[in-house]
Amino acid sequence: MIQCLENKRVFHLQTQKTSMIIGVLESGHLACLYWGNKVSDHEFLYIIKDIKKGSYLSNTDEIDIFKLEQIPLLYPAYGNPDMRTPAYMFEYEDGSRISDFRYHDYCIYNGKKKLAGMPTVLSQEANVLELQLVDNVTQLYMTICFSVFEDYNAITQSIKIENRSQETIVIDKIMSSCWSFLSDQFHSLTLTGAWGRECHIHKQSLQQGLFVLDSKRGASGHGQNPFIALMDKDASEYYGNIYAMNFVYSGNFEIDIEVDMHQNTRLMMGINSFDFKWNLQSSESFETPEVVMIHSGQGLHEMTNRYHHLYVDCLMQSAFAKKERPILINNWEATYFDFNKDKIMNIVDAASHIGIELFVLDDGWYGLRNDDKSSLGDWYANEDKLGGTLAKLADEVNQRGLKFGLWIEPEMVSPNSNLYRNHPEWIIRVPKRVPQQARYQYVLDLTQTKVQDYIIDTISTIIDNAHIEYIKWDMNRNITDIGSLNLPSYQQKEVSHRYILGLYRILETITNKYKHVLFEGCAGGGGRTDPGILYYMPQIWVSDDSEAIDRLDIQRGNSLVYPQVSMGCHVSSSPNHQNGRKTSLNTRGIVAMEGNFGYELDLSKLNCEEIDEMKEQVSFYKQYRKTLQFGELFILLDSENEKAWMKILGDEIIVSYIKILTHTNIVPKRLKLKGLENESLYCIDEMKSIHKGNVLMNIGLDLLKPDGDFFSQQWVLHKIVEK
Ligand code: DGJ
After folding, report:
1. Catalytic residue at 363?
2. Are strands 127-135 and 265-271 parallel, antiparallel or unpaired?
3. Which of 536, 567, 535, 539 lies closest to 554, judged by CA?
4. pLDDT tens, residue by residue, 200-216
5. Is the distance from the beta carbon of residue 524 to the nearest atom of ligand 1 less than 6 Å?
6. 405 lines ligand 1 (CB under 6 A)
7. 510: buried, middle or exposed (CB in 10 Å: 19+, 13-18, 0-12)?
8. Entry pTM
């Protein structure tokens, strides 16, 4: 719900449990009055009047109480007495960079509109507030758009600029979201890391000054996720205020946190202003991607829960969003490039025996691709390797009772490929310089419509000619040599954003055309894990590190924001190929069941005991799949050495526990559960014991003595429902 108060000078955006309040000051500036647990009152503008100002900077507009530098501005400009980092910067034809937008009008309506050409969180039930501002000197109009998802306790924010002047303006910076807090008493929580250790949770105390977390890689990147949370200093998993932002965008992003000299904090998120410029001609408009803002008054758990629900219901557009996902076997770590039809069919036969539901043929099936040095772009099957056409292989896999899936890396081209020989002008590069390779490949210039059309046609031909029900869409390098041979010099700084818009056009077309195909995103693992990708592809291979113990932190960070069903998690071989660690099949299984379960090892080389154990894992996962993929996630333990989590869906509960290193003479403690009903009875593991919810949450489950490092335990509980 959106209320207009105080003579239409205050807008109160209400979800079921939260309030966001925005004020229009006498001067026409917009101010952040409040964001947090729900409040109910009719007056809020006093919050600004009550600010005890200590600044010696001059007043603005000669309004005595008005000292912009200490006002929690909603979308601050450059060039006025607020000397903090602005949310936007425009350059005008006369060389000036000063803007002055003031409140003009508002409008409220129901039903969220899709952002043109960009992924959007959508719901017909969302209430939308558009605040319109105008800069009278330049005749630019700005719309700050908020959409309130009441039942999900979430609000999205984006910005639109319309150029109603006669001149071209250059946008140097345009954040999608900005919120100002009258406090600096926060910790920041970011999801950072690198290839193979994506999305590790990192917390730090805020300091005076500007902290920037960004990506300049052409994708959201392995090293930093487009997510930020500010937490009260005493906030934890189940306690305290959390203010979170997550960017629905897959390219270069920027998060700015600025703590000023008056102990206030400004938090912003948007397209990276580094190496960005956008030329906005007269009568054109520019829309930013959107940010999803979630406040939780009860710690990280509630924030996680809100993101999960919103993303499954309103972000993921795939027909598979709410469907149970198949258990897959991928041949990458089983064979790498070294396979032939026999090897593939041996794996498929074993998978069929175990009960696996989908076979994914990874890299190496096309052109002359026997290593990573050639053939990207030559997307026709290597029939010698496959023993026939792709269609025939898919049919044979189907005959064994499995669906057939295929890996592809459509945004790339190898220098050693027919595609590159025919179209050297189709890659991202700058004139006169030799383009740099990474993994022996170039990036296709997705700013060019003909390149986009080529990719759409190529993928369509592949899907039209074989019974393919799953696509793994990979992207294995960062974008260097940023430039397009197709754009004039003054538009070269538009390339990174235009690349992402091109990618979104391709994804929109392909995923709409092939709704029966389940798409999984991948970028060398988790190099492009973000809500933008989830809009099109409802699952993502979150890391190339498939090892269970390393995966604990990777999956913990991912699942803090992204639904578990979206996280591809595979059991791979032991010793593991990335780090050499040896872990039991049981531990590998329990960790992979935290998300969207699959296998990635040579099943044809396993012994009978391993096959039997996998059969049990597969049938267990099928039986409890709904809870494992869609249950509410509760974190029970998250210390360096012990991890435990549980999932609840209806009356069913699955609890998982991992102890990383065992220590002599350390007595196992009990594991206390969360989220149960105090007075209800729960039976544990097929009636081995029955306890009340309050007992399980306060006294807990019995933990076994570890029989070695990387020990794991799992329980199934059912609430006893009286009939
Ligand atoms: C990187 C991916 O993350 C891997 O899973 C695999 O598909 C390789 N690319 C193939 O080249």
Report:
1. no
2. unpaired
3. 567
4. 999 999 999 999 999 99
5. yes
6. no
7. buried
8. 0.97
Residue 6's pLDDT is 85
Answer left, alpha or beta for residue 364, where phi above 0 means left and psi between -120 and 50 means alpha. Answer: left
DSSP string, 590-606: HHHTTSEEEEES-GGG-
Q: What angle do CA 12, 17, 23 make, to 5 degrees?
A: 15
Average pLDDT value for residue range 355-366 = 98
Instruction: Tell me the per-residue pLDDT of 464-512, one tens digit each, with 9 for 90 and over.
Output: 999 999 999 999 999 999 999 999 999 999 999 999 999 999 999 999 9
Provide the token pair at 482: 């940023």
**CA-CA distance, 219 to 540, in Å (whole number)?**
14
From 365, 522, 601, mutation site for ligand 1 pocket: most ligand atoms within 8 A of C-beta? 522
- Asked if residue 362 has its Cβ within 6 Å of ligand 1, the reply is yes
543 Cβ inside 6 Å of ligand 1 = no
Spatial distance between the Cα atoms of 421 and 419, rounded to a whole number of angstroms: 6
Looking at the DSSP bridge assignments, the partners of residue 644 are 637, 657
What are the angstrom distances between the C-alpha of 367 and each of 343, 378, 408, 679, 723? Answer: 19, 5, 12, 63, 61
The Å distance, Cα 512 to ligand 1 centre, comes to 25
Selection from 221, 219, 216, 218 nearest residue 199 by Cα:
221
476 phi and psi, to 5 degrees? -105, 20
Q: Is the CB of 544 under 6 A from ligand 1?
A: yes
Which residue intervals of 19-59 are DSSP H helices?
Answer: 46-49
pLDDT, residue 51, reads 86
Active site residue 474: yes
Cα–Cα nearest to 719, from 693, 682, 691: 682
Cα(402) to ligand 1 centroid in Å equals 21
Q: Decide whether any atom of ligand 1 lies within 6 Å of the 474 Cβ.
A: yes
Q: Are 171 and 144 in contact (CB under 8 A)?
A: no
**722: confidence class by pLDDT, cuts 50, 70, 90:** confident
What separation in Å is there between the alpha carbon of 640 and the centre of ligand 1?
29
Among residues 544, 550, 553, 602, the one annotated as catalytic is: 544
State how far the Cα of 633 lies from the Cα of 55, in Å rounded to an integer. 46
The whole-angstrom separation of Cα 130 and Cα 145 is 5
Residue of 184, 474, 530, 553 marked active site: 474
Q: Which of 338, 407, 475 best tests ligand 1's pocket when mutated (most atoms within 8 Å of CB)?
A: 407
Q: Which helix (H) or strand (E) holds 32?
A: strand 30-37
R_g over Cα of the chain:
27
Res 67: pLDDT: 77
**What would the DSSP string read from start to end of 365-429?**
SBTT-SSTTS-TT--SB-HHHHTS-HHHHHHHHHHTT-EEEEEE-TTEE-SSSHHHHH-GGGBS-
Please give the distance, rounded to the nearest whole angstrom, from the Cα atom of residue 333 to the centre of ligand 1: 9
Contact 36, 297 (CB under 8 A): yes
Q: What is the pLDDT of residues 689-700, one digit of tens each?
A: 999 999 999 999
Please determine, for residue 56, whether its predicted confidence score (pLDDT) is greater than 70: no
522 lines ligand 1 (CB under 6 A): yes
User: For atom 2 of ligand 1, which residue has the closest CA?
Assistant: 524
Residue length, the chain?
723
* Spatial separation of the C-alpha atoms in residues 345 and 184, rounded to whole Å: 60
Q: How far apart are CA 2 and CA 573, in angstroms?
A: 53
What is residue 68's predicted lDDT score, i.e. its pLDDT? 86
Confidence of residue 687 (pLDDT cuts 50, 70, 90): confident
